Amino acid sequence: MGTRDHHVERFRSSVTVEQMERAASLLPQLSKPGILELRRLRLPEFGMLTFLSKLRTFLDPEKYCVLDRKLLRIPALKSDFKVSGKAIPVTVGNERAYQRWVDLCGRIADTLTPPRRPVDVERGFFHLVDTGQIAVADSILRKAADI
């Protein structure tokens, strides 16, 4: 992502010791999915669902996956989220929708041989969106919702 270095630098220059200490005490006991709890830390650059889902996935890649705005091109997923401008804000409803996304990716992952992780399935959806196969992605998600 072209803005990665910018985000990293802003995080490093803005984060406080107190924020890092609060994060260190929260992370081991984070509840499912924990997006609202992570948001309450008010870590610089981690204000919207997209970046918080990346953090959540980094913390537990066996159970979680990323939700990026690009994925909202998939109709079956788009209707679950409330978007504000170009961002997906952290709300109770969006946290529930994120957990549904994680659960759907997990269900699909469990049907694969060998079984995969939700994050692996999410990367497959990224590929489908990037290659213009949105109808295929939508069909897979709709079938997974009925599994």
Report on this structure.
The protein has helices at residues 4-14, 17-26, 35-40, 49-59, 75-78, 92-111, 118-130, 134-146. With 147 residues, it is mainly alpha-helical. It has one domain. Helix 6 (92-111) packs across helix 7. The longest helix is centred in the C-terminal third of the chain and has 20 residues, at 92-111. It is globular. The model has no long low-confidence stretch (mean pLDDT 90).
Distance between the termini: 34 Å
Report strand %.
under 5%
Radius of gyration: 16 Å
Instruction: Report the total helices.
Output: 8
Overall number of structural domains: 1
Q: Estimate the global geometry from the Cα principal axes.
A: globular
Mean pLDDT: 90
Uncertain residue segments? none
Reported for the largest beta sheet, the result is: none
- Sheet/helix structural class: mainly alpha
Summarize the helix and strand pattern as letters.
HHHHHHHH
Helicity range:
55-70%
Give me the count of strands: 0
The gist of it:
With 147 residues, this protein is mainly α.
Give a quick set of tags describing it.
mainly alpha, globular, 8 helices, 147 residues
Set down the secondary structure blueprint.
Elements: H1 4-14, H2 17-26, H3 35-40, H4 49-59, H5 75-78, H6 92-111, H7 118-130, H8 134-146
